[in-house]
Amino acid sequence: MAFGFRKASITEQSRVWEILEQAIIRRRADGSNQWQDGYPNPAVVQKDIEAGIGFVLTDNDLIAGYAAVLINDEPTYADIEGEWLTNEDFVVVHRVAIAQDHLGKGLSGKMLEYIEAYAADNNIYSVKVDTNFDNIAMMKIFEKRGYIYCGEVYFRGSPRRAYEKVLPRNTEIR
C-alpha cells in the first residue's frame, strides 16, 4: 500500500462526505451521540475544502480517510477546563473519519502521523485534538500516539475530552 496525505479538492467532496456519513452511522451504531445532530454535513465538508483545511488520506489513488486540519484556529480551546501542555502555535484536528472499507488497518493513527509531520513542516510543535467521552476507539488512538489528556472543552454545549501532543523539535517525525 502506498499512502499519501494531501489537501482535498472540491471534486472529491462527495467521496469525503460518503466517508463522514459512514462514520456517522458507525457512531450511532456504537450508541454514541457524537455527530448525531446534523453535524458534520455536506456544507461543512464544502467549507473545509474551500478553506483549504480539508485533507485526505489516500491509499494508492483511493481516498481512505478525511480530517480537517487547522492552524491556531479553535476559539473553544481557549476555554479549556484543565490546562494545555503548551501555549504556542498549534495544529487542530477535527472530523477524523476512515472509509468503511479501510477500517482495521490503523489508518486513523497513520493520518495523525501525517498531521504531526505537517505541523512540524510548518514549524509548529503542538497538535491539539478532542473527542466525545464515549469515543473509546479514538481515545485509544490518541493515547497510543502519545497524546496527553489535558481536560475538557465544549462544542455545541457538549463536553469533549481534549488532548495535546508536543512534537519534538528539529527531528524527523516520519
TrEMBL record:
One Pfam family this sequence matches: Acetyltransf_1
Domain N-acetyltransferase: 3-170
Source organism, top-level taxon: Bacteria
Coiled coil stretches, renumbered: none
InterPro entries: Acyl_CoA_acyltransferase, GNAT_dom
Stated name of the protein: GNAT family N-acetyltransferase
Native species: Chitinophaga filiformis (Myxococcus filiformis)
